[in-house]
Amino acid sequence: xxxxxxxxxxxxxxxxxxxxxxxxxxxxxxxxxxxxxxxxxxxxxxxxxxxxxxxxxxxxxxxxxxxxxxxxxxxxxxxxxxxxxxxxxxxxxxxxxxxxxxxxxxxxxxxx
Amino acid sequence: xxxxxxxxxxxxxxxxxxxxxxxxxxxxxxxxxxxxxxxxxxxxxxxxxxxxxxxxxxxxxxxxxxxxxxxxxxxxxxxxxxxxxxxxxxxxxxxxxxxxxxxxxxxxxxxxxxxx
Lengths: 112, 116
Known about the structure:
The structure holds two protein chains of two kinds.
Chain A: E1 3-7, E2 10-14, E3 19-26, E4 32-38, E5 44-50, E6 56-58, E7 64-68, E8 73-78, E9 87-95, E10 99-102, E11 106-111
Parallel strand pairs in A: 2-11
Antiparallel strand pairs in A: 1-3, 3-8, 4-5, 4-9, 6-7, 7-8, 9-10, 9-11
Chain B: E1 5-7, E2 10-13, E3 19-24, E4 31-38, E5 42-50, E6 53-57, E7 64-68, E8 74-78, E9 87-94, E10 106-107, E11 111-115
Parallel strand pairs in B: 2-11
Antiparallel strand pairs in B: 1-3, 3-8, 4-5, 4-9, 5-6, 7-8, 9-10, 9-11
């Protein structure tokens, strides 16, 4: 069964600094990987997804993620943090043909 | 706005009671997924329906049941409620269930259930 581990339940960066949120997956088959963002009191919004095309995936709001098979990683990055990026971020792997398996989430705080 | 609607937004009830959560998928989406988000368990997949038929089951308790109707809206029924059932319940939809991992799941705003 696939699984996802997000390293760091809470990440804090300064405005304008690099954002790096870590995600490692476990999968016996080529994975489909996703990053979702959840703003306070809202549902989840897809940031980007990897579906075996390009290994560097660009998403919305300036985020991107790189799929590294050798490291079983799919880390999320953004060159320059903005205050509006403060939210909870979830990495997920598509399991079988149906469900998403989510990581525990990483809460991102942006310091002014 | 994802196009997925969920009602009600908030629900407060007592232990032992039964509630129904409703979800309307995006226009054209055939698959509906239910997830539970709680502080201790995180985001957990409960169940998936595709065009009216159950496709996959996750960590769904026997006290919980769901169905998808001919108009494709779905309902999640929670009975004999316990304090531990307090959580945020999300519905998501996608175009196709069989190609699930390729298909983006669009999430609704959730229903916050509080069991007192």
